[in-house]
Structures are given as C-alpha cells and as structure tokens.
Design brief:
The structure is a homodimer.
Chain A (H helix, E strand, L loop, with lengths): L14 H14 L8 E2 L2 H8 L3 H13 L3 E4 L3 E4 L5 E5 L16 E12 L2 H7 L6 E11 L2 E11 L6 H8 L2 H7 L6 E11 L2 H6 L7 E10 L5 E10 L3 E5 L2
Parallel strand pairs in A: 4-11
Antiparallel strand pairs in A: 1-3, 2-3, 5-6, 6-7, 7-10, 8-9, 9-10
Helix pairs in contact in A: 1-3, 2-3, 5-6
The first copy, chain A, binds a DNA duplex (30 and 30 nucleotides) through helix 3.
Chain lengths: ~240, ~240
Amino acid sequence: MNSKKAVERQTGVALWRQIADLIRLAISNGEYDKTGMVPPEMMLAGQFGVNRHTVRSALAALAEEGLVQAIQGRGTMVRRKERLSFPISRRTRFSQGLSDQTRDLEARLLAHAVVPATGEIATGLGIPPGMPCIEVEALSSADGRPVSCSTSYFPQARFPGMAQHFAQLGSITKAFAAEGLADYVRVSTELVARHADANELSLLRLSPGAIVIEATAINADPDGVPVQFARTRFAADRVKLKIET
Amino acid sequence: MNSKKAVERQTGVALWRQIADLIRLAISNGEYDKTGMVPPEMMLAGQFGVNRHTVRSALAALAEEGLVQAIQGRGTMVRRKERLSFPISRRTRFSQGLSDQTRDLEARLLAHAVVPATGEIATGLGIPPGMPCIEVEALSSADGRPVSCSTSYFPQARFPGMAQHFAQLGSITKAFAAEGLADYVRVSTELVARHADANELSLLRLSPGAIVIEATAINADPDGVPVQFARTRFAADRVKLKIET
DNA sequence: TATGGTTGTCTATATTAATAGACATTTCGG
DNA sequence: CCGAAATGTCTATTAATATAGACAACCATA
C-alpha cells in the first residue's frame, strides 16, 4: 500500500494542497501510528512524484493547522490525529458519546432571533407557515477546534426561552429540560456533503475547498410532536458520523 | 443575499475552482431557477470581485461536468440540478427506494478477486485475519450517470459464488438470495466525506476537487452473523443520504 | 435592421505555484 | 566526535493562474 499516491495537475487545486489533504487523511487513518512520525520529506516527494519543496508547502500547511510539528534533524511528528466520531441514532445527543474522545467540549450560542417558519421548516416542525420560531445559531468545538455549526428552529409558542437557556447551559438537551421537556428522539436525518461556503469557512476555521457534511434533522418529543428542526454543518475532515440503526 | 460572495486567494485552491464550486452550490440551491440561466459573466465577475476570464474558467469547468451550457449571444443556461436521495436504514437496499426517482438503475461488476481478510475487514466480518474473502468492485449508475462505486468483501467459505451471481443479477440482494440468504440487515454504517481520489474521479466521472461520501457498512444475516463488509463512495453532488432510525 | 447585451477568442503581462539544485543546521547513533 | 539523515533556507527557472483590454460573433428585440 506504499505505492505512489495520486495527485493531479492543472485541476485548480494546488499540488501542495492535494498532498496536505492526503497526508491529513493518512494521519487520521492511523498510517503513521507506528512511529508517530510523518515519513521524511524526500520519501513523501518520491511517493507523490513531486518536488521536496512542494511537500514542504503541504507540511507547512498542516503545521499551521497544528496537525504536525517539524523538528530539524529529527523529522516531522504527528501532533494530533482524530476524526471525532459522532453517533447518529434515535437518541442522538451532541455531547454524549463524545466525552470519551475529547476533554473539552463546548457549544456556544452565536446568535438568535424570532423568525416566521417558512416552507421546509414549517413542514418539518409540523406547524403552519408563518408561525413564529426561535432561530438559534450555534458553534460547537472540541478542545478549542470548531467541529460544527448549526442553525436550529424551535416553535416559539412551546419553547419561548430556548435561546436564553441554551446560551446559559451550553446544551440543547439541558435547554429542553429547562423548558420542561425531559426527553426527545431523532425522527429523521438527511445528509449531504458539499464545499463549505464563506461563512462556514470562517466559523469553522477551514481553508477554501474544504468540505462540510450538512445534516438536516428533526427531533420530536416522546409523543412524536416535532420540537426542533436543525441544520448542522460538520467540518468533514474532523468528524466521522457513526450511524446506529 | 446577492452581495459579493467570498473567494480567497493564496489558499492553494485556484479562484476559478472556488467560483465553480460556489456556482455549483447556487445551482443545486435553486438560486437560478427563476430564469434557468446563470447570471452573465460580467455580473458574476463583479459579484466575486475577479476578472471575467476567471469566471469563464469556472463556467468552462461546469460545462465540462455537463452542469451548464453556454450559448453565444444568449447566456449560460443550467442543464442539470439534482441529487438522488438514498435511504439508509436497518434494511438498506441499493435498488429499493430509488426506483421512484429514476428510471434506469444499474449496478455493474467491475472486478472481483479472492483476498485474505485484513485487520479492519476481518474485524468487521468477525472472522480470523487471513481467511479468504471475495472482493467485489462495483459501479452503480442512475440514468447512465455513475452515482457510487463500492468495494465489498464476503466470506468465501459461506458465499463462494457471490461475484458470479452479482455479475449476472446486478444486485447484491439477488446474489445473496442465489447463495441461499433470503434476508439481511444493516448493522453499522460510518460516514466520512473527503475529496475524491484519482481512481474515483475517473470511475464516477467527476472533476478534480469533487467530493465523495464514503460509507463503511456491515450487513449481517438475521442471526447477526456478518455477511458483507462494504465501502461505498458516493458522488457527493449527486446524492443525499436519508437516514431512517 | 440597428442596437444593446451576451459569449467567444485573441494578445499581453503580472503573480503564484512548482521544479531544481546547493548548502546550512540539527539530531541521533556508532 | 564523526557521519548519516533529517529539516531549514536560499537562488534560479519554468509552468500555471489571474488580470487587462480589444474585438468578433451571435441573439433578441425594439
């Protein structure tokens, strides 16, 4: 499996970036776990069929991300390797099931507003179009690195203080509890992968061309009444979604 | 929302590719549905803050994908905008649930071999490493456009004729039936999104920089014994995954 | 049929990405 | 303490990307 990996030219994506993506992938696949080091620059240059300087550009980008660290005379070592594994199931909770993978998990309220429910959101929440909803923008980070940003909608009539509770508690589950909803389940999830837009690039601190996985989900109370319409964008190279059926 | 959209320089991703990605996104979001036309090149150049020639490079790439078509004197029209919706559930079948979205659905055997089970595959199938498995490479297309390619592993001892059956029947479900397995269920699915590699680009007829969603799944018989380890790569801009819990 | 708006094509130039080579600096092991 | 192996830095050159401007070809329509 150590043969030459493919990079293509004249594709609008610089070679150093393609190589950085491949090395990032190799790191998260654990290919360098044995030594904890990235192979020497000359060896990588040989594998990818490019000049050593091109490899250096790729490694510099990864160092900038904090993924690797080069030490003169020794080599380049892997500092971090992870795709956080997100469980997606009937009882999906953001914070649960992640606590064993990372120490510091944080969800931050970015903005909130009251907006009328439009077509897709009204349908998802099962309410008439035009009904007021609380829109909540949030950013979730693990160990200081953003992993996802989300836009959620809650029916205002039922959960008037959702935004405030979430801002204080930093958790949707806890905010629901504060609103008197002890339990809820995931009823539908749709996934799409696409390139990140400008807003996502800056929020998630990604570089252009990066990928996001967009999950559109509906949560409902135990009686099956929808309580949340959420659109979460994950930084694709930081997560793995684990579907439990 | 029609103000200037963000493209960034010196990021390793050429401006024309960033712009192509943004236009592709706008098309799939239905932003040009009213007229069926992409805005004039000069207008796009203004929106993105780049030269007209740069926009032309982006549009040329999209025309190459068959997404738009330019007509001299008139403008550039949208030719295609769609994502197939794939159901993912405990009873995931490729062909089922898609027949209402597309007329012509096809799965083709690309290659097959007998290989020893390695770590991940052996673990997934619950067999000792080194046991022989049948490896099957397949390509699935809808209406002549490839949507996914997959690599599957079946324990040879139990399903010796899997490759032949699949080649003849064009369906995993039918091939299992021919091997005497009437029913099976999905026990785990993991999703990752990443840039397509060279092999995937050519198989799925994608343009460089395109995204694939990689689903690593295990199917088991009704007794819970794993029967298939599959890694399916979907062309991300052609599909939507619908998770049913 | 004249005109304005659009895509198509050409030339020229500047900036960025990639290759090539040389050599310095640091680390580690014999 | 020497030498092999690794990263760091510099110069020079070529290829790809981006900008700029001019004008041709074509379409719709007033």
